[in-house]
Amino acid sequence: MTAPESPPDSGPASGPSSPPAGPSSRPALGLVAENVGKTFGSVRALHGVTVEFPPGQVTALMGENGAGKSTLLRILSGDHCPTEGRVLLDGAPLDLSSPTDARRAGIRIIPQEPEIIPHVSVAENVYAGSLPRRAGRRFDRAELRRRITADLAALGFEQVLDPDLLGSELTAAQRQLVEIMRALTGAVPPRAIAFDEPTSSLSEHEVEALFALIGRLRDQGIAVIYVSHRMKEIFRLADRIAVLRDGTLTGVLPAAETDERELVRLMVGRDLAGLFVRQDVATDRVVLDVRRLTTDDVHDVSLQVRAGEVVALAGLIGAGRSELALALAGDAPIRSGEVLLGGLALRLRSPKDAIRAGLGLAPEERKAQALFLHRTIRDNTSLVSLDRLRRRRFVRRTAEKQLAQEYADRLRVRAPSIETEVRTLSGGNQQKVVLARWLARRPELLILDEPTRGVDIGAKAEIYQIIADLARDGVAVLVISSELPEVLGLADRILVMQNGRVTGELGRAEASEEAILALAMTEDLTGPRSADAADGSRATDAAGPRTTDTDATTGVAR
Amino acid sequence: MTTPSATADQRPQAPAGRARPTGPRALLDAVGGQNLILLLALAAVLALFGSLNLNYLSWNNIQVIAEAVTIAGLLAVVQTVVIICGGLDISVGSQAGLASVVSAMVFTSTGSSAVLGLGAAVLVGAAVGLLNGAVIIYGRVNPTIATLAGLAAYKGVAQLISDGRAQGYVLGDPLFVFLSRGKIAGLPTMVWILILVAAAVHVLLTYTDIGRNIYALGGNPTAARLAGVDLNKYLLSVYALTGMVAAVAGILLTARTGSGQPTSGSEGLELQAITAAALGGCALKGGKGGIGGTLLAVALLGALQNGLTVQGINSFWQNVAQGLLLVAAVVIQQRRGLERAVGLPA
């Protein structure tokens, strides 16, 4: 193939460099996207991108949300037909008109949110669609058992994945493993595997297991594509890093020859020096005082948050952090203990009680738990403030518009107008609408559960700034985050949870990733399963909010 | 509040501004795409039957159409609210039948007190609606199943207390006469009642915080709950409101026919109500829809039915037409939602 053309706005001097594997004119091995472009209506999502994914190497794919990573993956997986260009495997052009074609060619994509059938076993989930059968279409249970045992052993998953568990009983990590097994066990051996932000719902030690697996895949000569926002992972894992911006390739760099700053500059076209805002505005006034709180998922938790203070809750997925947040927001029954806000003991029977008392929660799952996708930015912003915007039950339109506009401006929500439906916004802007809703309410305590999940780096910086501004205005902020750099960068104080209990507290001076991990997993050194098994079904929340789903259809009967 | 300025400068899109569309686009936004289609369809139906029969477009026939759609229209209006909540009430016809019988029987047994008859009917409607709501919320029964049970049970109750026959004769009473034949400013009283109820529900949905919360809980119940909306209270109230409006429809049925009707006249109303709401743009998943679209759909259905009758087309065909319209409305809706046609619809 020919050397990739210089993209229109290649920022850096290094430009799109050729991969170390084969810079010559003979056909490149592995998976190659050649001059691939995709147009949706009037939007051009991908502009003639040429990128190689050589066998036996991990190629990281980076870029802000909307940069074209997903579009490229979808083209490789046969989900989208490219409007221009072609895909080659070992020099031979592929016809990828459907996902089945891609699968037959040996291309596998591990989606961000695994598709798991809830009521059947792990074994049946893995081989769904090609279950072993005997003559007369009879289901061959013995053969299924034999196959899953062999495949689990081959992949080294015997310890972490019980083939008899039901889909609904799996943790987020186990769901991912099922998806990986599906990719690796087909009739056609895999040639290229893409992981789409696989670690966004995994805890740190599950990430380790995944990395070990990816290393093995690479050593087997498979071309691995790794999509992630997390720099640290990329530098640990990737041999080469391809960066997309606004649908164009801005660079392909050997991982050893680049650094975070350069990648960020390639992604955003600017240098983001210091995403975090350091300030010391914490006061002595205790806003939230939780005393020995116990719910079904949280045990004997005591904590305080002061005005102007940012406290982070760290811990593994399933440690009970989100459950604690929901309990404080009045959405989980409190078995014992007290919650005081501004010195007053709260009776939290429903989220309404919490909101009235001055507490706000921006929950973990933006779309499932917070947004009304078919309503406007204005509607979504004003919802919890309607009691202040109404006169005899009539909503004062002008006041409402002013409020929504004010906060959309302050948080820099990017949309044509506040009458835009929220579903059309990007993830970062949707998150800002959720924040706008709570900022407009002016709570005394704001709980932010994973405020930057699935948000691009530019919006992340803005959200960090918003949090800093909140603290400066004297709001007490409790942040839940699974990204340790974020926890360390944001928090004045860090509380670590494990199995529903607070296992330790770290001040700014003593906090480090190692210290947090030590507190988050001290008693748990036996492998991925036991940590989550102790908390059982709760851990699946990351992948699908089952605690909320059951209540979703008609309401809560308590 | 300041944001790092570097972040702001290089963004392709400006922060949410006050941009407003102008010209034809503004008109389309104001009317709504779905409503525009309905208006065009209505105009086409009126033009078609008007050209086939000159009397079709006479003021008299238009009043006949309006009167004929009043009862189904009332039910469609409340059905719209139920569907916006993410529910469905297929027992509205049976509720109307029960209320019709109750109004006539109470009227007769209290020595011709129309006020008591009406009051009793509305009370029974509210009670039946609350029962529906309670079964759905506290029994955690799917709304379609719960009200399917209601469809059978309330019809049964109406037949039991009436012994399956039409009850009483109410057209000796001036209030009932006024309801059935009266006119205000040239429009039949019944039509005024539909207009009033529709206007009240429209105001409730569009201009009050109650309406906002109703759209919220239909669009995303979990998010609504976490935003402090008391889901149970709202759902119970909506089903109770449905029962009361169904009772008003039942009272009008009594007034039109002169006596309490356990089944005749009320059977099949649920189908018309749901068809109108779906045709009017309600998303059956909840969270979307409005009274304007529903009323347009009611008018369209009424005009079509009347036109077919005027042309002497077999009424069995009208049922077929209605079924086709319901399916067509939902198919169009799903297509617009760009859902993948794989497996069972969500």
Summarize the structure in words.
The complex is a heterodimer of chains A (558) and B (346). Chain A is α/β, with parallel strands linked by helices and 558 residues long. Chain A is built from 20 helices and 24 strands. In chain A, the strands form six sheets. A six-stranded mixed sheet of chain A has the order 6-9-10-3-11-12, sandwiched between helices. Chain B is an all-alpha fold. Chain B has a two-stranded antiparallel sheet with strand order 1-2. In chain B, strand 1 (183-184) and strand 2 (187-188) form a beta hairpin. In chain B, helix 13 (269-279) packs parallel to helix 15 (315-336).
Low-confidence stretches of chain A: 1-24, 524-558
CATH superfamily of the largest domain in chain A: P-loop containing nucleotide triphosphate hydrolases
Largest sheet of chain B, order of strands side by side? 1-2
* Count of helical regions of chain B: 15
Shape of chain A: globular
The average pLDDT score of chain B comes to: 87
| Average pLDDT, all residues of chain A | 81
Q: Uncertain segments of chain B of ≥5 residues (pLDDT<50)?
A: 1-14
CATH-scheme architecture of the largest domain in chain A: 3-Layer(aba) Sandwich
Just give the CATH class of the largest domain in chain A. Alpha Beta
One letter per element, helices H and strands E, the order of chain B comes to HHHHHHHHEEHHHHHHH
Tally of DSSP β-strands of chain B: 2
